[in-house]
Amino acid sequence: MKHLTLKYYVFDNIYFTMYYNFVALSFFGVQYERFKKLKEKELKFQARNAELSFLKSQINPHFLFNNLNNIYTLVYQQSTNALPAISKLSDLLRYMLYQKEDFVPLTREIEYLNNFIDLQLLRYDYIPEISVNIQTDIDASTKIIPLSLIPFVENAFKHGDLKDAQNPLTIKLEVKQDLLVFKVDNQKNGNRKDATGGIGLENIKKRLELLNPAKYDLIINETTNHFYIELKMVING
After folding, report:
1. How much is the pTM?
2. 97 to 63, 102, 110, 111, 114: CA distances (angstroms)
3. Dihedral through CA 171, CA 66, CA 193, CA 53, nearest 10?
4. How far apart are CA 143 and CA 128, in angstroms?
5. CA–CA dist 20, 11 (Å, integer)
6. Which residues are registered as beta bridge partners of 144?
7. How many other CB atoms are found less than 10 A from the CB of residue 118?
8. Separation of alpha carbons 156 and 147, rounded Å
9. Which tens digits make up the pLDDT trace of 168-191?
10. CA 179 and chain centroid, separation
11. Phi then psi for 97, rounded to 5 degrees?
12. CA 1, CA 209: separation in Å to the nearest integer?
């Protein structure tokens, strides 16, 4: 009888030991999978932030290089627009360097856009053919990816023909409920692109994909003589 009781006791303990070990291993497995997913998510987040930082670091030198060339020309020509151009560039760089958020008020981005257009217009020795229609009654809470509009306008000024009165450079921005629609339309001037010409457009495409996937639609139509972009972007959504 004692032998049976001891045998039962041993098997009973083995059973419960195996049961609790199985439960413990299952719990550990679930926790490990959860930890692994969180770690993967964290690594993806870090990789995303690193890529965004790299993309932002590309903007400043590219922007500065192009505009310093313009200002150099104004200074060389002893133009009265040289000092105003330097002042405008200083304001623009301050915005570019000190804003760190992924999203900024659209009103601030529009102010930056207008300053950029003013800076570009200072470098011409003729009156450029340009039509700017930017909505002004924007809700202060509306936000947008910073520096997401400038590359298209910069590209138009750099490679556009601003002497054609029949086909002026056209810039239009409007907000319909939660949808921003931005259009830039210009004739090409026929000049070859320089080595850094593609950074701006490729940069914003990548940043849109990282920060606003599935919430934007970018149409680019380019021919030998014409360039058109239309950006539709969900905002506040």
Report:
1. 0.69
2. 12, 13, 17, 16, 18
3. -90
4. 31
5. 14
6. 104
7. 14
8. 15
9. 999 999 998 888 999 999 998 876
10. 17
11. -85, -30
12. 76
